[in-house]
């Protein structure tokens, strides 16, 4: 069952490793619009999205938006943390990335897909969930709408 709109941000604990910071408590993100992004090194449609996320981080971070990536392995080979770190370096992912090899965070979010995007408002409530290849324009519109509502 997917998370319902206005649900509170689930716990972000249980990651097997953290890259560029972490662990993160959802309470640390209160007061900020937050994008939580699920991806996997074996996901072919995830990789073209990563440069856009970097652009958004540069454009939106000064406006208070926070970014958290969750690496959700889809197969045994995806659990190699060295490969995840190499992908984070290759795609210059500068925001905090949780490596979720036991699917603790994935399960808390009731997430099944990569790429997947969860946008939370400043109160920590889910305002958008989307997954798939062509969802970035809707994700960006939601970020803009939540920032404009300030």
Automatic annotation (TrEMBL):
<dbReference type="InterPro" id="IPR036249">
    <property type="entry name" value="Thioredoxin-like_sf"/>
</dbReference>
<dbReference type="GO" id="GO:0016491">
    <property type="term" value="F:oxidoreductase activity"/>
</dbReference>
<dbReference type="InterPro" id="IPR050553">
    <property type="entry name" value="Thioredoxin_ResA/DsbE_sf"/>
</dbReference>
<dbReference type="InterPro" id="IPR013740">
    <property type="entry name" value="Redoxin"/>
</dbReference>
<feature type="domain" description="Thioredoxin">
    <location>
        <begin position="3"/>
        <end position="148"/>
    </location>
</feature>
<dbReference type="InterPro" id="IPR013766">
    <property type="entry name" value="Thioredoxin_domain"/>
</dbReference>
<dbReference type="Pfam" id="PF08534">
    <property type="entry name" value="Redoxin"/>
</dbReference>
<protein>
    <recommendedName>
        <fullName>Thioredoxin domain-containing protein</fullName>
    </recommendedName>
</protein>
